[in-house]
């Protein structure tokens, strides 16, 4: 799961709500000019008492009566911590509430470790929704709420992780109001308004500003692994006060037309927000809607081997004859999966997939993401006794988006 937590500088503005007592933060961003950026916040609902100490991350969050800050102790109010990583501060919400915004929906997800929240835009009356991929990544179910308060279940029909785009389809939707789009290039100084589910509170908020930059580049990397990164190009920059939860929401011009999709925001003062130009987002969305696969566009379900894994080096690894195996350490297998059928067991280390040497979890995930369910791939591993194996596996469908 790419649960994004703001460190310093700019950050992906979505929320991930984790299980009680565990705040994870594994996706940070850095701009090309070394200004740090980051992303959706994993926060903790749950029973807690006492005033929580400040977490190590800005926008440290708690939810309900949960923890505050990424490393902070439990907050008595459990509200979202203020910047940076406050103990019991009020929700990280920027802007003023709006009853509804035509063509804008709230996106709420269930994740393996909790829940998440973000925003989306309606592209067609029958329920085609545009959002950031990081809003729905690793989710097991998605619920979307429209401007009238009606809720729908949603499926991911395709995504582009490289460009942080996902397209959803709502079940049983019809007659929905679509977002008004302006695909012309936004201009420096142009007045804009960002709209989104600020703080993941189940309410839309809006915050105004202006375009302060165009063609911006940021590089996203997992906080736990700075070598695993992705870069977004050509972004709009704004001084609108975008915060977690706005991800996937619209950046509107003075005519109420969408010029960009809210994607990142700084935690430093003054805040700088980042948005994917709507023209760029639509190019990817159109490929997804047409079912066109590319080097970056993935249609339908993701493939899966059927293992629970961690980096062998970070987990202590498995030792064979005094040496440590490099790769992805298997902590368990899914019953009935390709991995289980091949004889891969807990304690094994996956060392190669499709002829490519595996150095860790992120590389394994990246390689598997290039495949589709039903395809066959060669997998090599070392079992817990130190024996080497290679088998050809038929990939299954992942239960996570």
From TrEMBL:
What does UniProt give as the signal peptide span?
Answer: 1-24
Kindly give the PROSITE patterns that the UniProt entry links to this protein: PDZ
Q: Which GO terms describe its biological process?
A: proteolysis
Q: One Pfam family this chain carries?
A: PDZ
This protein's UniProt keywords: Hydrolase, Protease, Signal
Q: Which positions fall inside the PDZ domain? A: 294-363
Q: What is this protein called?
A: S1-C subfamily serine protease
Recall the GO molecular function terms of this protein's record: serine-type endopeptidase activity
Q: Which domain of life is it from?
A: Bacteria
InterPro entries in the record: Chloro_Bact_Ser_Proteases, PDZ, PDZ_sf, Peptidase_S1_PA, Peptidase_S1C
């Amino acid at each position: 799961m790419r649960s994004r937590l703001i460190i310093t500088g700019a950050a992906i503005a979505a929320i991930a709500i984790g299980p009680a007592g565990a705040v994870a933060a594994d996706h940070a961003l850095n701009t090309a000019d070394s200004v740090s950026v980051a992303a959706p916040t994993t926060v903790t609902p749950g029973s807690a008492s006492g005033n929580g100490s400040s977490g190590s991350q800005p926008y440290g969050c708690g939810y309900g009566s949960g923890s505050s800050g990424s490393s902070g102790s439990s907050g008595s109010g459990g509200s979202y911590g203020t910047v940076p990583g406050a103990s019991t501060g009020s929700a990280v919400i920027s802007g003023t509430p709006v009853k509804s915004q035509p063509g804008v929906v709230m996106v709420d997800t269930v994740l393996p470790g909790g829940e998440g929240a973000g925003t989306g835009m309606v592209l067609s009356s029958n329920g085609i929704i545009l959002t950031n991929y990081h809003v729905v990544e690793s989710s097991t179910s998605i619920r979307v709420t429209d401007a009238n308060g009606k809720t729908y279940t949603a499926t991911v029909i395709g995504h582009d992780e490289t460009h942080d785009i996902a397209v959803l389809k709502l079940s049983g939707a019809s007659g929905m109001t679509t977002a008004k789009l302006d695909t012309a290039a936004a201009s420096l100084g142009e007045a804009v308004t960002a709209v989104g589910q600020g703080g993941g509170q189940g309410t839309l908020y809006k915050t105004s500003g202006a375009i302060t930059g165009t063609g911006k580049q940021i590089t996203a990397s997992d906080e736990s692994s700075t070598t695993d990164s992705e870069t977004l190009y050509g972004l709009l920059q704004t001084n609108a006060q975008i915060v977690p939860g706005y991800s996937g929401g619209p950046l509107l011009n003075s005519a109420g037309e969408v010029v960009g999709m809210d994607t990142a925001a700084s935690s430093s003062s003054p805040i700088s927000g980042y948005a994917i130009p709507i023209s760029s987002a639509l190019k990817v969305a159109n490929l997804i809607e047409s079912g066109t696969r590319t080097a970056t566009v993935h249609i339908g379900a993701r493939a899966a081997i059927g293992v629970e894994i961690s980096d062998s080096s970070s987990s202590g690894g498995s030792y064979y004859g005094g040496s440590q195996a490099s790769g992805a350490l298997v902590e368990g297998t899914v019953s009935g999966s390709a991995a289980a059928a091949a004889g891969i067991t807990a304690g094994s280390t996956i060392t190669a997939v499709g002829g490519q040497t595996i150095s860790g979890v992120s590389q394994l995930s990246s390689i598997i993401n290039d495949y589709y369910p039903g395809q066959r791939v060669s997998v090599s591993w070392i079992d817990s006794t130190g024996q080497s194996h290679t088998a050809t596996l038929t990939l299954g469908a992942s239960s996570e988006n």
